[in-house]
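Please decode residue identities from the backbone states below.
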């Protein structure tokens, strides 16, 4: 265990460095030690973070050998600009009022405070070069930095990660050639600045309240096309030119598109563009208002490494869902997809029942671990035979969740359910509508008008001994009363308690 004690806050040596272990003269070892000091494990509180920072400050003043690596770690992660402004002599008493410790939750107001002078700018910059991660939490101090924006090329030359979700903030002062991760609430002026600074970005997440950006998709798409090293991307919808660029990035592994309102005419969907292969893309998700956008994007390329596919739509008619799944099955992802989630609400006008089940279109994805379908008619015509056929195609399945807003009665019986479950030995969670009234399991065979709670409880307990929790749906037991499954849950718990004693 390393035990060090500082006798003061001066920069003079408080210990004889000749007596230190030789390992402590190696910068890499010191850095690992100070990183460990700065890590708060378990539930994080502000007081714990403050204690870690005070410990690093004490280490920095222990000896000259410790000063640089300790100070680098002390200033590595910043929550706002206020601590750096505290290095300015004039602003120190404003930030640390009457000896009160600075708090993230009680930041001072800089309204009416004059901007920094050139000399004060140098005081601010004393430790700015050490900052590697910045979380912007307020936006009332940017006017103080006007002198730096005129005289300094890059205020944070070593910044690697930036999270700025303040709508009125000016992100340009944080953009650095070294930036690798960027999470921004971006406005129209910022977008042009990002486009000239984002060449080295690996992780980019852009959200915007600016309708000009939403409506002029080419602005955002132009910014994305300048990023040559992206690993993950989250943003509003892009045009096909940007998608073509992304399809040829070998580094790209994850794309998330979030934009409820899409004007198809602005996306160039009518253009015949051939994409690259998205060689290493493993996760793709869409939160949009139309399936046409997703279908158009996906039909232009292959996704040979895709493992996760998720969509969330305002409404998803059965015909559009079927077309989308057909396109997905032709994207060279049948042997790689492990997770599919498709959510869509019912439209105002109820669609006529489709002639066939949509579940069969998912049988080609033989590596599925998770399948969640929540859209109208996703369970249409689903019976014992169809469930058995489908689950036989998914031997690795761990979670199956089928919710059809139009389904009020189930055609799957206990016999059909247990036959299907034998095909998926790894299944952990199951959610679907079954017929728990007409029991076809010995010795409880027979038809009834309402569910036999006692029989159902013993069937589940004997056939599925690991099941201890049942989540009911009001109409999930055909003619049974809504409270019947609550009785099953209560009796099942009693049986498990009796078996454990």
């Amino acid at each position: 265990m390393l035990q060090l004690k500082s006798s003061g806050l001066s920069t003079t040596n408080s210990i004889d460095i000749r007596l230190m272990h030789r390992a402590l003269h190696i910068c890499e070892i010191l850095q690992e030690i100070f990183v460990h000091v700065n890590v708060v494990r378990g539930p994080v509180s502000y007081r714990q973070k403050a204690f870690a920072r005070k410990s690093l400050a004490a280490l920095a003043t222990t000896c000259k050998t410790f000063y640089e690596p300790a100070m680098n770690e002390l200033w590595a992660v910043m929550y706002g600009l206020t601590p750096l402004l505290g290095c300015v002599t004039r602003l120190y008493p404003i930030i640390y009022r009457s000896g009160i410790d600075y708090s993230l939750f009680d930041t001072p107001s800089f309204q009416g405070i004059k901007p920094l002078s050139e000399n004060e700018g140098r005081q601010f910059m004393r430790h700015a070069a050490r900052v590697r991660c910045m979380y912007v939490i307020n936006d009332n101090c940017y006017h103080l930095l006007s002198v730096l924006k005129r005289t300094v090329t890059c205020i944070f030359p070593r910044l690697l990660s930036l999270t700025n979700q303040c709508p009125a903030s000016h992100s340009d002062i944080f953009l650095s050639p070294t930036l690798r991760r960027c999470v921004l609430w971006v406005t129209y002026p910022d977008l042009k600045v990002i486009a000239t600074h984002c060449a080295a970005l690996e992780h980019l997440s852009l959200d915007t309240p600016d309708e000009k950006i939403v409506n002029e998709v080419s602005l955002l798409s132009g910014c994305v096309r300048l990023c040559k090293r992206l690993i993950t991307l989250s943003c509003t919808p892009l045009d096909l030119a940007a998608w073509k660029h992304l399809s040829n990035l070998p580094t790209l592994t994850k794309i998330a598109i979030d934009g409820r309102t899409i004007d198809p005419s602005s996306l160039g969907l009518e253009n015949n563009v051939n994409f690259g292969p998205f060689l290493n893309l493993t996760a793709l998700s869409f939160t949009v208002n139309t399936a046409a956008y997703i279908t158009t994007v996906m039909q232009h390329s292959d996704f040979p490494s895709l493992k996760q596919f998720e969509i969330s739509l305002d409404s998803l008619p059965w015909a559009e869902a079927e077309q989308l799944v057909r396109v997905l099955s032709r994207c060279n992802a049948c042997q790689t997809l492990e997770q599919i989630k498709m959510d869509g609400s019912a439209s105002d006008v109820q669609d006529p029942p489709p002639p066939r089940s949509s579940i069969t279109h998912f049988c080609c994805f033989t590596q599925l671990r998770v399948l969640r379908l929540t859209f109208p008619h996703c369970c249409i015509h689903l019976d014992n035979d169809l469930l058995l056929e489908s689950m036989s195609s998914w031997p690795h399945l761990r979670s199956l969740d089928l919710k059809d807003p139009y389904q009020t009665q189930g055609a799957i019986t206990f016999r059909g359910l247990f036959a299907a479950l034998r095909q998926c030995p790894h299944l952990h969670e199951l959610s679907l509508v079954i017929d728990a009234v007409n029991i076809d399991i010995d010795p409880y065979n027979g038809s009834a008008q309402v569910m036999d709670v006692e029989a159902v409880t013993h069937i589940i307990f004997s056939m599925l001994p690991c099941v201890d929790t049942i989540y009911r749906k009001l109409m999930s037991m055909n003619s049974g009363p809504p409270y019947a499954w609550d009785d099953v849950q209560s009796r099942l718990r009693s049986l498990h308690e009796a078996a454990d004693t």
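Observation: DSSP finds 17 helices and 13 strands in the chain.
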